[in-house]
């Protein structure tokens, strides 16, 4: 499941809306919604995310969060390590091999490390 699919499913279920009802309202097939919710489709288009936001009445900061989550919801990503040292390529490959075996705690530790790197990047002159 992707972060966007998980969020969309949660919002739909909280409101007691079926996939068929939602699909009809936003102009897609129920099969497409199911594929998105289960992570079997790539990141949704900007237009689709806008329709979902409108359907659920999501505005301002929540709509921006929905867009950010959608942008990070492609189930098959490519990590470009060209131009980086060999260790970076090794790390990217190891991560792709081992990711399925990480515990939730280990995953959150790695996210914390990435958050620190982002903060350091933002703070740099």
Overview of the structural elements:
With 125 residues, this protein is mainly alpha-helical. The chain has helices at residues 3-14, 19-26, 30-37, 46-56, 60-71, 86-98, 104-123. Helix 1 packs across helix 5 (60-71) and helix 4 runs antiparallel to helix 5 (60-71). The termini are far apart. The model has no long low-confidence stretch (mean pLDDT 92).
Radius of gyration: 17 Å
| Uncertain residue ranges | none
| SSE pattern, N- to C-terminal | HHHHHHH
Number of beta strands: 0
Distance between the termini: 38 Å
The secondary-structure class comes to mainly alpha
Overall helicity = 55-70%
Average the pLDDT over all residues and give the rounded result. 92
Please give the count of helices: 7
Major beta-sheet overview? none
Tertiary shape: elongated
Labels describing this entry:
67% helix, 125 residues, 7 helices, mainly alpha
Compact summary:
By secondary structure, the chain is mostly helical. It is 67% helix and 0% strand.
Helices, strands, pairings?
Layout: H1 3-14, H2 19-26, H3 30-37, H4 46-56, H5 60-71, H6 86-98, H7 104-123
Helix pairs in contact: 1-5, 2-3, 4-5
């Amino acid at each position: 499941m992707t972060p966007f699919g998980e969020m969309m499913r949660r919002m739909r279920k909280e409101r007691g809306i079926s996939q068929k009802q939602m699909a009809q309202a936003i102009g897609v097939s129920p099969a497409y919604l199911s594929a998105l919710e289960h992570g079997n489709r790539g990141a949704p288009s900007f237009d689709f995310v806008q329709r979902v936001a409108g359907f659920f009445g999501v505005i301002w900061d929540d709509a921006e969060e929905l867009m950010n989550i959608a942008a990070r919801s492609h189930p098959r990503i490519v990590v470009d390590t060209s131009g980086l040292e060999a260790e970076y390529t090794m790390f990217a490959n190891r991560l792709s091999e081992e990711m399925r075996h990480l515990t939730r705690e280990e995953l959150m530790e790695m996210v914390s490390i990435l958050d620190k790197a982002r903060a350091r990047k933002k703070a740099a002159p």
